[in-house]
C-alpha cells in the first residue's frame, strides 16, 4: 500500500495571467475578455457584461498585482517555499493581440521566455494553461468567439507557436481552464456574449464546447509531435455533489448533475461522447454540427491526465426550488454537515478524497489538483504579521484527504493551491478575497503599495513541501 506522497510529487502553487500579471495593454498585448470584467458581485461581474473599456470604471485585471513587472521577486518567494512547480497561463492576446494575427508578438513571447527561465533557475517546473478565461477580444468581436468554428484554427496556430517556442522549457501543459464552465458562464468559458435566456442557449453552448473539444485534441496532437517528452492534460472545475436525501428522485437528480459536469472529461479523457448525452440532446432540441474527422480526432488524441479545481461540494435536490448558486459556479443547496467560508463556499476535505477516487475509478489516468484553497479576509497585525490559521487548517485537511486517496490507489501527480500569492478573484474581482501564502498590499479599489509580505501559511507550506507532505 502507498503510505504517502510519491517521490517527485509536484508541490507548488497556481495563478492565471489575467488575475496576476496586469500590464493589460503593454508591449503589444491586445485586449482579452477578462480585461472587460469589473470589480463587483458575481452577477454584476460575470453576467452584466460590456466589452467596452469605459472611463471611470475600475477594472481589477488592468494592473492586478503587477506580476508582469515583479515576477522575479515573486518567483524568488515561491522558491523559498520550495515550490517544485508553478501553474500559470499564457495570455493568448500577448502572443496574438487580435487572435487572428498572421505573426506573433515577439515581446509577448519574450516575456514568457523570461518567466520560464526564472522558474527553471530555481528548478521550478512550469505547468502552463493555454487558455484560462483570456480569449483575445478580437475573436469575440470579429468571429463570435467559440461559437464559431473558425476559433479552432486560431487556437491551433497559437498552441503550435508556444509549443515550438517553449518546447525545451515547458513539459506540462493544460488546454482549457475549467472547460465544463462554458455552459454555466459562457463569457468566461467561451468568450461568448450568450444569455441564459436565449432560447437556443443550450444549442450554442454545446456547439462551442464541441469546437473546444476539437481544438483541444488538435493541441494534444501538436504537443506530442513538437514536444514528445511533454504531457498535456485537460482541466475542469471539480463539482462533487451529494443527493439531498436517499429519496430515489434526489439520487437520480444527483446522477444527472454529475453526468452533466463529467460529460466534458468523458469526451476528452475517453475520446467519445457518452451514450447518455444523446437523450439529453434530443430532449433539449440540441443538434451539434460535427464535421467529418472531428470524432476520429477526439478519439485519437485524448489528454494524458486530468487536472481539476476543487474548492467545495454541493447538495442536489429533485425540488427545483432548492437549486441555487452556492459558489464557484456550483448549483445546489447547503450541506448541514459542513462549515462554510466567508463567501458561502462549503468546506469539504473528505469530498476531495471521494472525488479523487471517483475520477480515478472512471478514467484510470493520472490526476492533478491544480486549484484548491480558501478565499478569506486577512488582517495585517501592527507588527506586519498575518496569522492565517484558518487557511492552514483548510489546506491541512485537504492534504490529508489527498494522502488517503493516494493510499486508496489514486495516481496523483501534484498539488498547486490556488492563488499562492494574493491576486484578483475570478468570481468577484476582489482583492480582499485572498488565497495566497503571500500577502499583496492592494485593496478592492486598486489602492496600495503592492508590497509582498509572508503570511503564517507561507512557513507552514514550506514545511509541508520540505517533508513531502509528512509535516502538517
Automatic annotation (TrEMBL):
Keywords carried by this UniProt record: Glycosidase, Hydrolase
InterPro entries: GH, GH_1_N_CS, Glyco_hydro_1, Glyco_hydro_1_AS
Gene3D superfamilies: Glycosidases
Origin superkingdom: Bacteria
Any one biological process term the GO annotation gives: carbohydrate catabolic process
Pfam families, per the entry: Glyco_hydro_1 (PF00232)
One GO cellular component term noted in the UniProt record for this chain: cytosol
Active site location: 371
GO molecular function: beta-glucosidase activity
Entries under PANTHER family matching the protein: 6-PHOSPHO-BETA-GLUCOSIDASE ASCB-RELATED, GLYCOSYL HYDROLASE
Family listed: Belongs to the glycosyl hydrolase 1 family.
Protein name per UniProt: Aryl-phospho-beta-D-glucosidase BglH
Organism of derivation: Clostridium fungisolvens
Lineage: Bacteria, Bacillati, Bacillota, Clostridia, Eubacteriales
